Amino acid sequence: MYADSVKAVNATAKTAIYDTHNGINAENVLGENWNAKSTIKYGDLLGDDNLFLSQCSYIQAVSFDPTKSGRNDHIAFIGICKKDDSSETQAWVWVFDIKNNRISTPFSMGNMSWMQETDASDENMTLAYQAQNFISITAGDFNNDGYDTVVAFASCDGNDIKLVEFSVTSGTGATVIGKEAEGAALLHPAYMQSGEVFETLRSKVSADGRFRLGCDLAAGDVNADGIDDLAVISFTQRFSEYANPLAAGETIIEPYLAVAYGENDQDSVIASNKTKTTYVVSDKKASGENEKINVPLSPTISIGDTNLNGYKDIVVSGINGGSFLSDDNVLDCPALDGKKIMMVSYSDSGKETDSLVRGVCESVDMPPGLKTDGYNHTLTYPVMGTTAVAVNGSANYVYVFSGGRMYDLSKGTVNAVKEAASPFFESELNAADFEGLPEKKEIKSISLI
Questions:
Q1: What would the DSSP string read from start to end of 340-364?
Q2: CA dihedral defined by 57, 379, 203, 135, rounded to 10 degrees?
Q3: Segment 22-39, tens digit of pLDDT
Q4: DSSP state of 44
Q5: Which terminus, N or C, of the chain has the lesser number of Cβ atoms within 10 Å?
Q6: Contact partners, residue 57, CB within 8 Å, separation at least 6
Q7: Could you give the CA distance from residue 446 to residue 444 in angstroms, rounded to a whole number?
């Protein structure tokens, strides 16, 4: 973030994720006043009770442009807390205006009382890596009017599992967030279906989220029409208390990818009339008398052009899970299948009548240092943080970050990147680079684990 003074640095620091819950007075952030080498105190600038961020846990955020300024100078947050010591744990969305140093009034998406922030026993506490499966936030210009809107997901209690789309106005007086639409049409149809079995499933409570629907969101132009599209991947978790299958077929364990396409002047992207969907799963393979499928556990998604074919890909990755199928049985708890990451990509042909096209679909070794010890069939899994990274600039294909390692998908296979060359990683800066003077530049490299 750009800041031209100590005071501005103090203000923009408000968007950081802090490791303390020492009250909501801004002066308590980090346990002491920010007054080293300065007479300015952190709380003096922000004011008492002006740091809602300090109340929340499990926070995610996205930068965006709601004012048509051309700059992503607003931050939308989603987090979980009992606001102002309320008795109800809720999912909250709020916006911070960096330029004017102000926060919108937080908006509640609903109760998430199944989450447990603190407990004497870890078995009854929602761990941070588990919670990240059940909230998500993104932003984009889905109707081509120049103003970004925010889309958030929260796996609220019972049947209250939904996407919410927000508009944001940020004039000279205040920053205001308002709900434009909500719905579940883009979410996993096998899990969200009606019927007593599924009503019971959605009503069951476990602090690790094993019975809940998880989701991740991404925004980007998938069909190359110049308008942002919304990608939604929703997925089930463990179901470990069910000794018998739910009779939902194998799709209950397969992540569900839905793309809602942006259009000129449309009211809401989550209610878009143009959608494409697919289940994210490997081809079936024979395994003894049964068949086996692989699925990414706790998958996350990102959008970027991995092969310079003119269309941005939707990349999905997660810990590699496997499940056995037979004519009369589907195992509702996919288990770890080796210490691997599963990565799958999808693209759009640009034709409305065509389905999403699956590209790579591979399971590769986990990066060194990642462990699967301690994750058993009764726990949800951590996300791998899928992110398309333009290391070599926007004119080149992107690498994909997942689980601590970069991958190159440009050749139609998933290849771990050992060394990435880029003119943007140099050992020192040269003034000529900024003055437009001719200068021969040597491309440096960075080593990746």
A1: EEEEEEEE--S-TTSPPEEEEEEEE
A2: 30
A3: 444 444 443 344 333 333
A4: H
A5: C
A6: 21, 79, 80, 81, 117, 128, 131
A7: 7
